[in-house]
Amino acid sequence: TKGLRVSDKGYLNTAVMRSEITFIDGDAGVLRYRGYPIEQLALHSSHLETAYLLIYGSLPSQPQLKVWEDEVMHHAVVHADAEQFFRSFRYDAHPMAILTSAFAYLGSYYSEANPSLQGQSLYTKGSPESFAVMDKQIYRLIGKATTLAAMAYRVRQGRNFVTPPTGLSYTGSFLYQMDYLGEENYKPNPVLEKALDVLFLLHADHELNASATTVLQTGSSLVDPYSAIAAGCASLYGPLHGGANEAVIRMLISIGSPANVPAFLEAVKKREKVLSGFGHRVYKTSDPRSFIVRKTADEVFRVTGKDELLETAMALHEAAMKDEYFIKRRLAPNVDFWYVFTSRLLPCKLNCSVLRSGLIYRAMGFPLDFFPVLFAVPRVVGWLAHWRQMMLQPGGVKIWRPRQIYVGETKREYVQSMNAL
Ligand code: SDX
């Protein structure tokens, strides 16, 4: 292991590859997808158009966008067999556990390019048929992500599954499947549908975060992309990463009111509590996405009314941003802090304002533990963009196999332990 240098804890300041996909400047609070500033894409693009940009490297022409959207939406349907798979989960299974398993399930289903059957991966030959296989896998994973998420939501409520509708947008189809209750003239609320599309776009990619790295680590063994995406979904599930949006709400509920914020922050300083939704490995000034999410939240609140937790969140934000402990550690709110308010209100108010008011709909709000699923669904795009870039890298795929510096016991002889007698 001569000449090896240990990268700091958790790959701190360690670059493992070159990439053309996403650029982040953590000190300046800059985020660009393939060179386009996130602010411009959030304003002018859509999640699916941005997905095409991230995966294929340039914005699609109108005809290309039409084909892309049709293919993704066409592949939203899952085989009827999937219903028994979903029904095998307990009613209280965490939806991220269900979704993670569902992506791996897809891998068992489509063995069309099982690399182990192809010897060296079919993909790296860069042949027309390999591009065709890869594109179909990409359509399937993006198209089915919303369907699998909606099925995870419904299986927990003991409700029947819904066939993805035709003629609706990506987020419109998702909201339809989430809330459909036999409404023949179901029309998603355009404000909430657009808000969710902006949030999906913002969450589409973020360079080599923990889950994208997991997808690449897994995919480097040439396993199928469904299994690699399942691994990335498992990584996103953690409260330090995508699970933070669920943890933020649980934190705010536990704080209870603005009056309890100072005591909570003292507990954080004593490391008795974690300030979820704050801090970031890369952004040390501000997460550019949080400003856009906050603006989106204001638009949503105009439709749905404010969330009672918002006062506590604002008080927490205010106090933490003035506190030397957090300023010194450059802990600004990250994308999860403000995101939870828009996703928390969507389905519940959507039901009230669009479908029909009624206690049953209000009772149908997104469950708290469903929030990481709202992160995973759009992040499938970024995971696939990195995976495709790796599959097509010049010279073919190298398995990711880091080394270590061994600091354990030196050689010692085996002696039967006395207490075994
Ligand atoms: C996402 O990587 C990505 O790009 C992720 C993401 C994406 O789009 O993929 O942006 C999405 O995962 C956002 C992050 C969501 N996680 C949370 O909100 C959980 C709370 N945040 C922390 O767990 C933490 O900030 C991390 C995990 C996000 C970052 O961890 P780091 O890189 O180890 O933090 P750091 O080295 O910058 O910490 C510096 C100091 C340390 O204190 P000291 O040991 O030096 O005294 O700040 C402390 C940390 O202990 N600290 C916190 C804190 N975050 C860091 N202290 C209290 N509360 C926090 N939230």
UniProtKB/TrEMBL annotation:
Biological processes per GO annotation: tricarboxylic acid cycle
Keywords: Transferase
Active site residues according to the UniProt entry: 280, 336
Domain of life: Eukaryota
One of the record's GO molecular function terms: acyltransferase activity, acyl groups converted into alkyl on transfer
Family: Belongs to the citrate synthase family.
Protein name: Citrate synthase
Full protein stretch here: 56 to 476 of 505
